Amino acid sequence: MNNTIKITPDKNTRPATGALAAIHAPAEVKADAEPAIAVEDLCKKYGSHWAVDEVNFIVPKGWTVGLLGGNGAGKTTTIAMIMGLVIPTAGRTKVLGCDMARDRHKVLSRMNFESPYVALPARLTVRENLTVFGRLYGVPDVKTRIEELIEDFDLGDILDRATGRLSAGQKTRVSVAKALINDPEVLLLDEPTASLDPDRAEWVRSRLRAYQARRGATILLSSHNMPEVEELCDFVVIMSKGRVVAMGPPHELVARFKCEDLDGVFIHLARVA
Amino acid sequence: MTTRYYYVLRSSWLRLLELIYWPAMQMLVWGFLYTYLYDSKSSMASTAGLLLGAVLLWDVLFRGQLGFTFTFLEEIWSRNLANLMMSPLKPAELAASLMLMSLIRLLIGTIPVTILTWLLFGFNIYALGFGLFAFLVNLVLTSWAIGLAVTGLVIRQGLGAESLAYSIMILLLPLCCVYYPVWALPVWLQPLAWSLTPTYVFEGMRAILLDGVFRADLMIECLALNAVYLGLGFTTFILLLGSARHRGGLLTMGE
């Protein structure tokens, strides 16, 4: 059986950078298995500006993939199209086999997302917010699920406090807990540790790793924190000016661009672009 | 979703007070005018009750729409819209929760005020009987239809369209003949007035208070028109939501 997955399509190839290449997936990932996330010829045009331009990649089930790029690279628009919040100008995104522009409601209960730029209602207590989202996602036993999250995310002390009165770190913990309320198979994280101190950021990462290990979930995360990406991700997709300029496992990219670490790769590609 | 809005209302007594405050202040102003007209033995005295009835019913329409739209604006102000749009919540379910909350807010705001009007000015709007029920149903349906369209515009245009939530009903005020009969309008404007559902309610109210007649024909026509407007409102809401997904503002709305 051929278990090589060509994640990079030819359309995205930019010979000038030489940054794109096919990658070899681990043996346990089967080429014919349906990916958790598929991004196919994805384009989004705002006015005359192509925010996303012919982007292609897949995220196999159970993988953690980092979506990287500078400000305005098109990461957030790509994630929004994967979530079905934005309709592509061309191409499509599929999550667990469903076209997100047309059939997103079939899979929304099996996925979730977290972003520091989207807030939970400030006046509601942490418990109330988790209860509301638990019900929205159709969690069968919301109370028990909240108890589990209290333990996992150390929320006991803040459970009955208004969410708006929490510190940035506490809010992030609550947001990540909300993102896991429905035990999602696919988790989209937009800068999950932004605004956290290193200790708290590591704590959140450890929770995400634990969740992924337990659930076998697929995680797509965008981040500017390269050590975090190197630590969490099996694979990264780097975008610039709406296009994919490089993709591969972090260590492979570091070797390919002859850099010391992923930070170096990021800076190199940003300057080339 | 209703649980979420219930939590918001419960979290602040000031919000509850605000629901009653504006209708109560308005009622006091018009109530004193009613008292003056009633006591002046002028030709206006016999129609003074119309004024308070009109004020109360107009407030039902106005507050119904505000309750619907403000409940939705709460999601944008708290930057929670993307969380909702990413959840399995369907647009029809969101609309239904906004309708229910609009009704709850309306009842919280208007029931104490109608009782206050009865106690302070001796005007008992409940004396309208079944007519009052028919008026309320039609006004609430109209407020939802307008609320759906305004909410759609806010989703499409962002907070730039927020002022519509406050101002759109004022556009209807002169046209739907709240304080005067339809014949007082220029002839060319009258068909437009009859295309608006509140006109039927206020004409119906005048028929009860002046002639003691419940105009079922008006209420049935009004209900039929409301069914059309509600359908149009929901269609507008869905189309504008779809347009917002094309424009790509849902994720960052409220920032």
Could you outline the blueprint of secondary structure elements for this entry?
The complex is a heterodimer of chains A (273) and B (255).
Chain A: E1 37-46, E2 49-59, E3 64-69, H1 75-83, E4 90-95, E5 98-99, E6 111-114, H2 126-136, H3 142-153, H4 168-179, E7 186-190, H5 198-215, E8 218-222, H6 226-232, E9 235-240, E10 243-248, H7 250-256, H8 262-272
Parallel strand pairs in A: 3-8, 3-9, 6-7, 7-8
Antiparallel strand pairs in A: 1-2, 1-4, 4-5, 9-10
Helix pairs in contact in A: 2-3
Chain B: H1 2-11, H2 13-39, H3 48-77, H4 81-86, H5 91-121, H6 130-157, H7 162-172, H8 190-194, H9 197-211, H10 216-247
Give a verbal description of the structure:
- The complex is a heterodimer of chains A (273) and B (255).
- The longest helix of chain A has 18 residues, at 198-215.
- Chain A has helices at 75-83, 126-136, 142-153, 168-179, 198-215, 226-232, 250-256, 262-272; strands at 37-46, 49-59, 64-69, 90-95, 98-99, 111-114, 186-190, 218-222, 235-240, 243-248.
- The radius of gyration of chain A is 19 Å and the shape is globular.
- Chain A contains eight helices and ten strands.
- Chain A has a single domain (10-272), classed as 3-Layer(aba) Sandwich (Rossmann fold).
- In chain A, strand 9 (235-240) and strand 10 (243-248) form a beta hairpin.
- By secondary structure, chain A is α/β, with parallel strands linked by helices.
- In chain A, helix 2 (126-136) crosses helix 3 (142-153).
- The N and C termini of chain A lie far apart (38 Å).
- Chain B has 255 residues and is an all-alpha fold.
- In chain B, helix 2 packs antiparallel against helix 3 (48-77), helix 6 runs antiparallel to helix 9 (197-211) and helix 6 (130-157) runs parallel beside helix 10 (216-247).
- Chain B has one domain (2-247).
- The two termini of chain B are 22 Å apart.
- The longest helix of chain B is centred in the C-terminal third of the chain and has 32 residues, at 216-247.
- Chain A binds chain B through residues 44, 46, 51, 76-77, 80, 83-87, 101, 105, 108-109, 111-113, 115, 117-125, 128, 131-133, 135-138, 162, 178, and chain B through 1, 3-4, 7-8, 11-12, 74-75, 78-90, 242, 245-248, 250-252, 255.
